[in-house]
Amino acid sequence: MKITIVGTGHVGLVTGACLAEIGHEVTCYDIDSDKIELIKRGKIPFFEPGLIELVNNNIENDRLSFTNNILEALTYSEIIYITVGTPMGLNGKVNLHYLYDAADQIAKNITHKVIIIIKSTVPIGTNRIIKERIEAVSKFEIEMVSNPEFLREGSAIHDTFFADRIVIGSESKKAAELVEEINRPLGIPIFTTDLQSAELIKYSSNAFLATKISFINEIAELCESLGANIEDIARGMGLDSRIGPHFLRAGIGYGGSCFPKDVSALIQTATEHGAELKILKAVNLVNQKQQDVLVEKAKQRFGSLNNRKAAILGLSFKPNTDDIRESPALRMVSVLLEEGVNITAFDPVSIEHAKKQFGDNINYSSSIEDALLNAEMAFIITDWDDIKNFPLSQYEKLMKTPILFDGRNCYSLEEVSRFSIEYFSIGR
After folding, report:
1. Is 57 helix (H, G, I), strand (E, B) or coil?
2. CA-to-CA distance for 411 and 418, rounded, in angstroms?
3. SS3 state of residue 2
4. Which of 7, 205, 315, 407 could form a disulfide linkage to 350, CB 3.0–4.6 angstroms apart?
């Protein structure tokens, strides 16, 4: 099928490349001409494992093209995916500015009947609003389909080809069936429902996963008081098929562009409709508190942190992405700076983003070794393989005082005990 993707960010580019890979003819449109030219030159503006190879392969096979000309993008396509960003706005509400701009561009430029598929995460009722917005301008009939994405940064291609389910919501049986046909080559179970339920499934799924994370972090705090081991507890819980092992890793909280935004948006939506989501409010509070845990441990250990030298290992909110949005590292670095700490930070791919955030207020390192040199303390924020596999002996060798605050429980307690390292982890 001929498909247009409106918005060539993380979700749009992954979606376009994967749809092309299963045989569709895909045109990706973005208003940012610099981004489009960058992709045409064989580069992408963010880090996602395997994506550049997938994009270039499908460009070479004439199944994937890019343009910043909206007319060129829409002329021959009857299927339009909207994949623009929906960032968090004020008071936890979702900012739909980019979505409305995309809808207005489509309304002014479509020349025939189209099916519009919204993959962006949007508040409940947004598909209906977009339909009304476009039909107020365009004389052509449109059908709306909600097809929320469930992609994890760092494994987005795998998540597309090996998803647990594909959710399709529409008031049009014909439109829903067509979207089923688009996705059939993936061989993934398809669940069909109405528009609003599809919108709410995405928010509810992310909110539930965030709840599991905050729950296990609260139990981790109790473990430290009782002398129990959170990893054994999580393993024992996860063996119960009703619970499962996923998202039960204690740490310094969740971040990124999805969980914080989606939990806040669902709380806000509930408030607007006269409901109170007490559990999700607690989830938010626990996560905010969890991001301060390592700094509190450091203050208890040192007393004053003023003029101390610290290494920050990892800046992205999770490994295998350069995304630092809502990363626990952002809050931690800000708090440590307020405490007067001299910081040197390492991350394999996120340094340039961090420079835009912190400028010359901190130092940046291209290696773990340089970050640790003469440091009095080190904080593990992101469990990159480079960091998890870094020899403990190097902490002893390079640091002025080998004191390690591990926010991701990268090392076993037994392994650490073989070295002269003061080691603080989560829930152990």
Report:
1. helix
2. 12
3. strand
4. 315
What pTM was computed for the model? 0.93
Cβ-based neighbours of 318, under 8 Å, separated by 6 or more: 152, 153, 154, 255, 256, 382
- The torsion angles phi and psi of 326, rounded to 5 degrees, stand at 55, 20
Residue 277, Cβ density class (10 Å: 0-12 exposed, 13-18 middle, ≥19 buried):
middle
Tell me if residue 223 is catalytic: no
Which candidate, 11, 46, 49, places its Cα nearest to that of 28?
11
Q: Indicate if the pLDDT at residue 93 is higher than 90.
A: no
**Nearest Cα to Cα of residue 119 among 174, 154, 81:** 81
Residue 115 confidence (pLDDT) above 90: yes
Q: What is the pLDDT of residues 331-357, one digit of tens each?
A: 999 999 999 999 999 999 999 999 999
- What is the distance between the alpha carbons of residues 343 and 351, in angstroms, rounded to a whole number? 13
Confidence grade of residue 71 (pLDDT, cut at 50, 70, 90): very high
Is the pLDDT at 90 greater than 80? The verdict is: no
- pLDDT for the residue numbered 313: 98
Other CB atoms within a 10 A radius of the CB of residue 56 amount to 16
Task: Give the pLDDT band (50/70/90) at residue 89.
Answer: confident
Q: Which two tokens stand for residue 287?
A: 């996560």
Q: Which 3 state secondary structure label does DSSP give 192?
A: strand
Among candidate residues 18, 223, 258, 410, the one labeled active-site is 258
Contact 30, 68 (CB under 8 A): yes
CA of 163: how far to CAs of 51, 152, 166, 254, in Å?
17, 11, 7, 22
β-pairing, 79-82 with 64-67?
A: unpaired
Half-sphere exposure (CA, 13 Å, Cβ side) for 182? Answer: 29
Residue 410, CA atoms < 13 Å, CB-side half-sphere: 24
Q: Is the pLDDT of residue 302 over 90?
A: yes
Q: CA 416 from chain center: how many Å?
A: 31
